[in-house]
Amino acid sequence: MTVLVAGLLLFLGTHSVRIFADEWRSAQIERIGEKPWKALYSLASVLGLGLIVWGYGMTRAEPALWQPPGWLRDAASALVLVSFVLIAAAYVPRNRIKAALGHPMLAGVKTWAFAHLIANGRPGDLVLFGAFLLWAILAFRSSRRRDRAAGKTYPAGALAGDVSTAVAGVVAWAVFAFWLHAWLIGVSPLA
Asked: What is the per-residue pLDDT across 138-174, written as a single tens digit (0 to 9) for each?
């Protein structure tokens, strides 16, 4: 569990600088430049992600604290579908989800983490998905607060953007749910 926690601290800590130390971040970018900052940020993120993957793998042998009922796993699959559509909304231009939320990627991470929390009962699951859920809640709140302070608005959505968002999210979810999840994680979410 120590490796998992270290990875989460490094990865989510790196991704929390704007939440807790935005002025310090700006000062560092000013001091060393944007490209070196991004290089250091990326290096810390990749290292943290590697530790998360390694640490989570080490926790998979731990016994479950609870076993979720089958219907909860079905609900989790539906929530993960929603999360994929939200994440797609972060990248597809001119969609109503981004216009309404401003930060659909963070909303998607919240939904993804919550879905995995309700569908898994091992200690490593609770630490991993609980940490991502807490981080996404704080990051979403912080991002929305920054937007309000800056008077930032997002372009209005259009039907073409909405349809593209939905199609991209559903296709990505289907590929992951039917093939990639079992191959990468070792668990078939729809089985």
From this structure: 999 999 999 999 999 898 999 999 999 999 999 999 9
Tokens of 65: 């604290």
- Hey, where are the domains in the chain? 1-61, 65-191
